[in-house]
From TrEMBL:
Gene3D superfamilies: Jelly Rolls. InterPro entries: RmlC-like_jellyroll, RmlC_Cupin_sf. This is LuxR family transcriptional regulator. It comes from Brachybacterium vulturis.
Amino acid sequence: MKRKISIEALAREQIKAAQRAGGRRAAETVFGGHEKVLRQTVMGLLKDAEIGERENLDEATIYVLEGRVQLWVGDDCWEARQGSLLVLPQARHRLVAIMDSALLITVAKLSTSPEEPPTSS
């Protein structure tokens, strides 16, 4: 496991990967995963790419490493640019890239999905 990661270099790599990807986005988990409570992912999104509407049941933030994005919750919108931290609401939301962007998404799992049985201690 890597102990030191250049998030800036990974952000550039993910924007380049998004340019090659059909979905106009690319991501790499840099810490954690489905089996962990904490998960951090760097995502590259090209201009006008979107992370479609979804429910958030966990604690999550998005740090804008590069570019500019909009976070939509219903009719409310917050715009964030490089250096901004968005705290995701525990509500349905979507994210749209206003320009090519790189994000550090951090999620702390508070719940299990309906498909997953709760773990016992």
